[in-house]
User: Fold this.
Amino acid sequence: MKLLTRLGLCGFGRFGLLTCRRSIGLRSLHLVPNSGGLETQIDPRESSGSPPAATAAADPPWEMLSLYGRPSDSVVDSSTMAECQTSTGKQLRVSFGLAVPPASSFLHYDLAAGSTPGEEDAEEKGPTIMAAHGDSVLLEIRRSHRWYRSTFDYFVYRAGAARRPSLSLLPACDYYEKFEEPEDGAPEDGAPLSPREQMLLKETTGLLRRGEDELLVVSLNFMYGSCAPRDEAGLCVFRLGEREWEFKEAVPIVLDEGSKGDELRQWHFSESVVPIGDRFLCWVNYLSGFLLCDMAEASPKLRYVPLPVQPHKSRGCSCCEPEPDGQKFRNMCVAGTDIVRFVTIDPRCCCGGPGTSTCVHSQSAFTVTSWTLSLSMDKPITWVKDGVLDCAELWAQPGYEGLPRVQIQYPIVSSHNPNIICFRVKDRKVWMLEVDIKRKAILSIIPSTDEPWTSCYQLPAKLRG
Assistant:
């Protein structure tokens, strides 16, 4: 405390509260309550029995990766740098600026300027992050052309403490034409898509670490058309180190006994892909449920699993209907080798019941609820509610003073400790909030100085191993 005050970074304002001014060297404020008010503590998580937190921003135990890369002529961290050539022969160099959550970590890239023969009119965008699992990240570069269709490159970045980081260009995936009916799938100009014109969607493409050496890139695809079956799908699988993608056709989608049979009609699309342990991938629709697949099986299948609760409907106000962006108030993440945690932020009435309040003074009232589920492809599974945090409990926490009392957004569960959840608080400004939902305690609050949209979509990772 004396050191902070001496540096002019900290002091006591009105009412005896600790105040801090923004500084280049002060990235966040960690707070814990004591008998006399507030005190700073380097590692507030040790008292809860949680894994030790990082002691410096250079070595965070986990990271929140922003999906959007930043162009940079210099390497931000040489220990994270890797490079390779694109499919057009350009040199691509990437590195990561890692930060302790709830601050965002960013991909920095340097892509050689100029054009290659046949690509003079191309406008390259990226790279952007599509998926992450542990120390591995899937990247995309898109080239938009003036006179013909866009082309895509996909790369896998691998960090790791025991080896130097690597960046590998993936071979083109040419299996998407198998999912299209001839009369509906042909482009307007009648020409079939070339392999590099095949696009992977970040909403349906996941990354799965299978042990130390094996890494899978998996894309879920449905057959389109009026006669296409809705009880099966296809999987495009690439094993890092191989030369070609593998196509798994007619993968069955199974429902549990007692299902109504219309669940798949409600599961319209995937919003994200969540890897669990070294076996499972979950394609999640945050408004209904997810498709679970055990990638260790020789003949995989997809099991539909409904979410524990459905989004609450508003009381006659169309502006309060659940938004199509399910990730704004819901998130699912790993909580163990075969356990998922689901977090939902739901509006509540001023009387404490579920649903949006019609009271002017309680329009922003909400509760945060967490659930866990042990995964299995064949055995019965049941969601267990294991945490509830009311907005009144959050707003009364030391350190929340001065922040807007609005509904928090975009939860992201820590891949280091599933009891820790980060949120975005947005009014006219944006703050990032780190909360231990088990102890119902605020661990850290920082102002977001980045573009507001960069804090919306982030992925958990462990690039420091």
